[in-house]
Specification:
Length: about 170
């Protein structure tokens, strides 16, 4: 199941990024919706997972909206207003959330590892998305902001997921 979870996240990521790069921002949303449906179907604690999904999307959207508002990131093909974080980015955050209790669960309680994972992995994902034509990253300051943001958010989101798990199991 862990490998399937990781693979489905990758499918969502590519659908979102390639959809945005090719003027089809809703493609990633459609694919991610199917991935979310599968994720919620296979879990025996859908209520808990929904809380993790929504929390992650809202917190992630705050980071991306901040980057957009500061002109550090320019997202391609929003799917709606260019002043609001794109629909496909929200889908990406939802897809990422599916990994917190599955393929990334090994990082629960390993906050330094998740800090480093986020600090490196977040900017690399944006670099890859830039190379594929889905975003434009406005230089080194933007990459520093991404590294700091993801270094903080990755352990925070894992902590939130762990907290929701413990509260829901009581």
């Amino acid at each position: 199941m862990l490998l399937l979870n990781f693979a489905l996240f990758q499918v969502s990521w590519f659908a979102c990024v390639m959809g945005a790069a090719n003027s089809q921002p809703w493609l990633g949303v459609i694919v991610t919706t199917m991935v979310l449906a599968w994720h919620l179907y296979q879990t025996n604690q859908a209520h808990r997972e929904l809380k993790v999904l929504v929390s992650t999307m809202l917190i992630g959207a705050l980071l991306d909206q901040t980057l957009l508002s500061l002109n550090l990131i320019d997202y391609q093909h929003h799917g709606w207003s260019i002043s609001i974080v794109p629909v496909w980015i929200l889908a990406l955050w939802l897809a990422f959330a599916t990994t917190l209790n599955m393929s990334l669960a090994w990082m629960h309680k390993r906050y330094w590892i998740s800090f480093i994972f986020g600090m490196i992995g977040g900017p690399l994902a944006y670099l890859a998305a830039e190379k594929l034509g889905a975003v434009v990253v406005a230089g080194q300051l933007a990459y520093v902001a991404l590294a700091v943001g993801w270094a903080i958010l990755t352990p925070l989101l894992l902590l939130i997921a762990r907290h929701i798990n413990s509260v829901e199991s009581v």
